[in-house]
């Protein structure tokens, strides 16, 4: 170690004297520590200066906004709950109205469809009913006319062809002829124009079809005119000899 010594040394150029002190020389590590300490001290001074010169912006939270507006947070929550419940009630009301309207519209659609079908059947039935006498005349002609010559047979075949075409057209439109022979008399389908006492058939049985009846689906275009069997009457008359003896 070299002892510290202080000496006054005069400057050769100016003639002024100055003091010099001799100290222990520092190592390279000590120099680096001194430089780091000086840098940190400078940085702290700069940050402190900025902190004092520039104030930090203040942040407002959601709770502070509610407090500043004069409303408490629980009151805001209750208002939202009440609004949600009101909207649910309105939704249920609107949904119920929609379901009722849908049901009413479906009933209206079915009702109008049924009315349309009934009207169509009614118009078709009233039109076809006017053609039934023509069919009856063809039936009578076929059963009564007996052609004798080739010319008469040709005429017979020609109008029978027209008759067959008409019958086929009626079938395509849904017209069906009734076949009541052997069935029980039904006043909704048959019209009894004759009665005949007989043991061959049960009472109330249709034994002859006098004029064909026709149906259009379930609708009756014309009732069938029929002969109905009745029970035979018992012979209750007494002979004159029996009357005298009595």
Write up this protein.
By secondary structure, the protein is α+β, with helices and mostly antiparallel strands. The protein has 6 helices and 8 strands; from the N terminus they run E-E-H-H-H-H-H-E-E-E-E-E-E-H. It has a 3-stranded antiparallel beta sheet. A 3-stranded mixed beta sheet has the order 4-8-5, with no helix packed on it. Strands 1-2 form a two-stranded antiparallel ribbon. Strand 1 (6-10) and strand 2 form a beta hairpin. It is elongated, with a radius of gyration of 63 Å.
General form:
elongated
Percent helix range = 40-55%
First-to-last CA distance: 192 Å
Summarize the biggest pleated sheet: 3 strands, antiparallel
Q: State the total count of DSSP E strands.
A: 8
Low-confidence stretches: 1-28, 42-55, 236-246
Order of helices and strands: EEHHHHHEEEEEEH
Cα gyration radius (Å): 63 Å
The side-by-side strand order for the widest beta sheet comes to 3-6-7
Mean pLDDT: 75
Given the helix and strand composition, which structural class is it? alpha+beta
What kind of oligomer do you see? Answer: single chain
User: Count of helical segments?
Assistant: 6
How big a fraction of the residues is strand?
15-25%
């Amino acid at each position: 170690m070299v002892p510290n010594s202080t000496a006054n040394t005069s400057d050769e150029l100016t003639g002024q004297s100055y003091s010099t002190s001799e100290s222990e020389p520092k190592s390279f590590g000590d120099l680096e520590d001194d430089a780091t300490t000086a840098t940190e001290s400078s940085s702290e001074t700069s940050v402190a200066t900025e902190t004092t010169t520039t104030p930090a912006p203040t942040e407002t939270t959601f709770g502070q906004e509610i407090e500043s507006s004069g409303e408490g947070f629980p009151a805001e929550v209750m208002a939202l709950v009440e609004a949600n419940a009101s909207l649910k009630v309105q939704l249920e009301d609107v949904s119920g109205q929609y379901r009722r309207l849908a049901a009413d519209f479906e009933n209206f659609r079915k009702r109008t469809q049924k009315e349309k079908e009934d009207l169509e059947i009614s118009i078709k039935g009233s039109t076809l009913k006017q053609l039934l006498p023509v069919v009856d005349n063809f039936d009578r002609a076929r059963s009564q006319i007996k052609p004798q010559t080739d010319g008469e047979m040709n005429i017979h075949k020609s109008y029978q062809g027209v008759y067959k075409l008409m019958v086929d057209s009626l079938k395509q439109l849904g017209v069906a002829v009734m076949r009541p022979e052997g069935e029980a008399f039904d006043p909704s389908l048959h019209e009894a124009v004759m009665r005949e006492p007989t043991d061959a058939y049960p009472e109330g049985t249709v034994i002859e079809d006098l004029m064909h009846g026709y149906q259009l689906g379930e609708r009756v275009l014309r009732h069938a005119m029929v002969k109905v069997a009745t029970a035979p009457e018992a012979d209750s008359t007494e002979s004159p000899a029996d009357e005298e003896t009595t």
